């Protein structure tokens, strides 16, 4: 059934006069009569009594008025939702992030972006390492990743968010806790709390590179998969760890000191997505994240 016929009928039900209805819709009275006749034919019953100078709706007419009003309201709302989705101002986005970003910077970044996209629904998934998020993107199980570069997959595109240097985490009571800058060789005999390199951890690769440049490889290690676990072990005096400086932003962090390393390495946190992804919401989210990242300048 044409929406034009229903829209005409609703105006006719409000005016109860063919001439006034024609004036409101900027058509001839004959056109209104034709539309009413077409609607009655399609419905299969009389909708209005035209025996007097003004119209009177029949019981069927009153029933159709209620149904048509609800239907057109639903269609209008659906149109607005579709237009919002097409413009990238609404919809659902699944974001996968590495654990070292989740409790640190991500809440502030996403919080500011969400304020500008109030109709966006977000789903989050935390994963230990960049390689896993690359796999999820390639399998189309997530829409956007927050990772540490490098991004190895040729099927993915990425954009930098902020730099995050690697530093040495030591217990607050450690002999190096008050040092301005340290040579990693000075902790070569201590237990190192590390991420496993075999799982594709960027931090693990870069931390091992720093150790080798300092002239050693850790002999005693404790492997971890979560940043918060590593930070907690350092605070408990179980060892030292090379981690991103941004970990100092963890809420409630106590008993730990971040010390700059002489041969420190700068890591880069970035957004990554599939090159063939044309989702307008993802595109707008990336632009908003870039804008917020520039405003924050140095979020770590």
From TrEMBL:
HTH lysR-type domain segment(s): 1-58
Instruction: Spell out the SUPFAM superfamilies in the cross-references.
Output: Periplasmic binding protein-like II, Winged helix' DNA-binding domain
A GO molecular function annotation here is: DNA-binding transcription factor activity
Top-rank lineage group of the source organism: Bacteria
Per the record, GO CC terms?
protein-DNA complex
Q: Which Gene3D superfamilies match?
A: Periplasmic binding protein-like II, Winged helix-like DNA-binding domain superfamily/Winged helix DNA-binding domain
Keywords on record: DNA-binding, Transcription, Transcription regulation
Instruction: Name the protein family.
Output: Belongs to the LysR transcriptional regulatory family.
Q: Sorted alphabetically, which PANTHER family does this protein's record hold?
A: LYSR FAMILY TRANSCRIPTIONAL REGULATOR, TRANSCRIPTIONAL DUAL REGULATOR HCAR-RELATED
Q: What is this protein called?
A: Morphology and auto-aggregation control protein
Which gene does this sequence derive from?
oxyR
């Amino acid at each position: 059934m044409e929406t034009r016929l229903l829209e005409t009928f609703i105006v006719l039900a409000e005016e109860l006069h063919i001439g006034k209805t024609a004036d409101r819709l900027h058509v001839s009275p004959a056109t209104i009569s034709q539309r009413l006749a077409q609607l009655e034919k399609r419905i299969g019953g009389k909708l209005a009594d035209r025996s007097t100078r003004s119209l009177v709706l029949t019981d069927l007419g009153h029933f159709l008025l209620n149904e048509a009003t609800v239907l057109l309201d639903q269609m209008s709302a659906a149109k607005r939702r579709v237009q919002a989705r097409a413009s990238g101002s609404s919809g659902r986005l699944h974001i996968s992030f590495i654990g070292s970003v989740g409790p640190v910077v991500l809440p502030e970044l996403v919080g500011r972006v969400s304020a500008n996209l109030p109709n966006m629904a977000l789903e989050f998934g935390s994963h230990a390492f960049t390689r896993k998020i690359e796999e999820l993107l390639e399998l189309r199980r997530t829409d956007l990743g927050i990772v540490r570069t490098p991004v190895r997959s040729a099927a993915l595109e990425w954009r930098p968010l902020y730099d995050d240097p690697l530093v040495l985490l030591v217990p607050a009571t450690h002999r190096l806790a008050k040092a301005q800058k340290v040579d990693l060789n000075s902790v070569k005999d201590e237990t190192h709390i590390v991420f496993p390199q075999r799982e594709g951890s960027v931090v693990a690769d870069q931390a091992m590179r720093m150790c080798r440049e300092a002239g050693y490889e850790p002999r005693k290690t404790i492997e971890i998969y979560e940043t918060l676990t590593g930070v907690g072990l350092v605070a408990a005096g179980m060892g030292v760890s090379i981690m991103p400086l941004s970990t100092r932003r963890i809420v409630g962090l106590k008993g730990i000191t971040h010390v700059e390393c002489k041969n420190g390495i700068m890591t880069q946190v970035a957004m990554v997505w599939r090159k063939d992804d044309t989702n307008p919401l993802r595109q707008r989210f990336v632009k908003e994240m870039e804008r917020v990242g520039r405003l924050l300048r140095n979020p770590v």
